[in-house]
């Protein structure tokens, strides 16, 4: 039995508010259960030096958690003078996941930075950041297309992510913190809306998993990300 009482293949409640900040070209607040992430996309008419003159666009991301996003206060990374390894790893994951859903030629030589700030954490913050980050990106691209700055939609398909794992020996979808902290196996699954897989991060701790169990988790991830695709597409339409 799951601590939340959810079925094995049941997602947490998902709600999304769009255009929640005044200045960002695209923004949303995504809530997956008690994990809440603010995502904002910024468009700049420039690219990193290594892409100058290439005709290719660039999508990158930054990620952070507010000090009281967790049960006890975390020290701001700025006071330590550098980002922690976990933060760097997650924001690189977000960036490369979003780029997998973008035609960078159609995007043109410009950069979109997606900022993901965790307001409240209860497991799955990187997955919520990727899902909300894609929606913020979608809204920013919509503005560029409306203004005529981009002629062809550069977004190939929605990019969404969900966690799955083995909790108490059972395959479960969308782990919250109570499950994630006790799961013998857990993974993050990033998929495109066309069914193509972008990345799977899976590891065991205190348990092992079989090929059959891995296939079960992939099946759960496909179900969960499919539901998230519907949610972000509905939110993008307003």
TrEMBL record:
GO terms for biological process: rRNA 3'-end processing; rRNA catabolic process; tRNA processing. Pfam families: RNase_PH, RNase_PH_C. Phosphate binds at residues 86, 124-126. It catalyses: tRNA(n+1) + phosphate = tRNA(n) + a ribonucleoside 5'-diphosphate. Its EC number is 2.7.7.56. InterPro entries: ExoRNase_PH_dom1, ExoRNase_PH_dom2, ExoRNase_PH_dom2_sf, PNPase/RNase_PH_dom_sf, Ribosomal_Su5_D2-typ_SF, RNase_PH, RNase_PH_bac-type, RNase_PH_CS. Residues 10-140, 158-223 form the Exoribonuclease phosphorolytic domain. GO terms for molecular function: 3'-5'-RNA exonuclease activity; tRNA binding; tRNA nucleotidyltransferase activity. It comes from the Bacteria. Transmembrane segments: none annotated. Belongs to the RNase PH family. HAMAP family: RNase_PH. NCBIfam families: RNasePH. This is Ribonuclease PH. The lineage of its organism: Bacteria, Pseudomonadati, Pseudomonadota, Alphaproteobacteria, Rhodobacterales.
């Amino acid at each position: 039995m799951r601590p939340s009482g959810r079925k094995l293949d049941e997602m947490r409640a998902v709600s999304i508010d769009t255009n929640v900040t005044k200045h960002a070209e695209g923004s949303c607040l995504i809530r997956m259960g008690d994990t809440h992430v603010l995502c904002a996309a910024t468009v700049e008419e420039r690219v990193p030096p290594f892409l100058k003159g290439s005709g290719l666009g660039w999508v990158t991301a930054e990620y952070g958690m507010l000090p009281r996003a967790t049960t006890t206060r975390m020290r701001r990374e700025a006071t330590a003078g550098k980002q922690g390894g976990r933060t760097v790893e997650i924001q690189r994951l977000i960036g490369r996941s979003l780029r997998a859903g973008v035609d960078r030629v159609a995007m043109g030589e410009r950069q979109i930075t997606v900022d993901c700030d965790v307001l409240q954490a209860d497991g799955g913050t990187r997955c919520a950041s990727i899902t909300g980050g894609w929606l913020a990106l979608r809204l920013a691209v919509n503005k560029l297309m409306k203004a005529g700055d981009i002629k062809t939609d550069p977004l190939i398909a929605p990019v969404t992510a969900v966690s799955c794992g083995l909790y108490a020996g059972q395959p479960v979808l969308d782990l919250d913190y109570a499950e994630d902290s006790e799961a013998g196996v857990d993974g993050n699954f990033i998929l495109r809306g066309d069914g193509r897989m972008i990345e799977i991060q899976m590891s065991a701790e205190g348990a092992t998993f079989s090929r059959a169990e891995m296939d079960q988790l992939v099946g759960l991830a496909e179900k969960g990300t499919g539901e998230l695709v519907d949610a972000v597409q509905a939110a993008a339409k307003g």
